[in-house]
Amino acid sequence: MEQGKCPKCDSDDLDYKAIESCNSDVASMYYPFTCNSCGFEGKEHYNLHFTGFTDENNVICLKRTDI
After folding, report:
1. Where are the domains of the chain?
2. Ordered per-residue pLDDT tens for the chain, 67 residues
3. Is 6 buried (19+), middle (13-18) or exposed (0-12) by CB count in 10 A?
């Protein structure tokens, strides 16, 4: 199993929808997707972790150093 590939046919031709929250205490999100090759529909899950802040110009203001 590999991110960005269909777990059914191994195609990388996936159509992703907007990221959604898993509604749990853990910072976990998923992207719903449909495989354009075989029609499989699923969710690609990710766990998030805080890495820092940027300002409105995308300049790093604070970056975690312990990661």
Report:
1. 14-63
2. 789 999 999 999 999 999 888 876 668 899 999 999 999 999 999 988 888 888 888 887 766 666 5
3. buried
